[in-house]
Amino acid sequence: SSLTERHKILHRLLQDSSPTEPS
Amino acid sequence: TLALTPEQLVTCIMEAEPPEIYLMKDLKKPFTESSVMMSLTNLADKELVLMISWAKKIPGFVELSLSDQVHLLECCWLEVLMLGLVWRSVDHPGKLIFTPDLKLNRDEGSCVEGIMEIFDMLLAATARFRELKLQREEYVCLKALILLNSNMCVSSPESPEELESRAKLLRLLDAVTDALVWAISRKGLTFQQQSTRLAHLLMLLSHIRHVSNKGIEHLSNMKMKNVVPLYDLLLEMLDANTTHSS
């Protein structure tokens, strides 16, 4: 699988421009 | 980043520090392997989300390529968690302060197979930082250095984009090293004593890397034995580590 597929959550949190907060 | 003085950079890194976190669920006695591991992994999962937010606030980090950002965090996440734990525990000899509502002594880890060895290494590192009277400014710089140095010997850049990102990373690493040197210089030590302190602090990072590797191995075992269900982000970070090492 591609890097992006393997690291969905980490990618999403890194690319998210809003401040990340615990779910 | 290059426009910031070491003092300004330390201020930025201090401001990036994540907020204090609480577990909010009482770990009831008697502790079991499953209940302790459940608390620790639940906490790690919450802290990982805050860690990503922390990394993004370190000046220059988001200017690195996305692939570098991912690799750096994947390589260092448990080291960063462990250095944070050591820092919280530094004024509490014999105890590991995971959160204000989860404080464990070494014996309380005895119900989890293989974890006492890791607790002992963490307590030893904490005792050493206590001896050295680690300052908050030094601690935040060390944590940023762990992040930026984490994949230095893992990946070798090839494409122009990767080379550019690597050059930025090296400049950032130099800037944070200068920030640490500045933090040490505030203590009124002689030049010789400052160099010795820098060496002592940096040498402790190899100990943290070692404990982290032990921790990854331990968590993989716990996962294989189905002791505890792992949450999505923690699972992703653990898998990245075990994939790298294999």
List keywords for this structure.
heterodimer; A: 23 residues; mainly alpha; 2 helices; 52% helix; elongated; B: 246 residues; two-stranded antiparallel ribbon; 8 helices; 67% helix
Could you please describe the fold and organization of this structure?
The complex is a heterodimer of chains A (23) and B (246). Chain A has 23 residues and is mainly α. In chain A, 52% of the residues lie in helices and 0% in strands. Chain A contains two helices and no strands. Chain A has helices spanning 3-6, 8-15. The longest helix of chain A has 8 residues, at 8-15. The termini of chain A are far apart. In chain B, strand 1 (95-99) and strand 2 (102-105) form a beta hairpin. Chain B has eight helices and two strands; from the N terminus they run αααββααααα. Chain B is mainly alpha-helical. In chain B, strands 1-2 form a two-stranded antiparallel ribbon. The longest helix of chain B is centred in the C-terminal third of the chain and has 34 residues, at 191-224. The mean pLDDT of chain B is 94. Chain A binds chain B through residues 3, 6-11, 13-15, 19-23, and chain B through 21, 46, 49-50, 52-53, 56, 66-67, 69-70, 73-74, 232-233, 236-237, 239-240, 243.
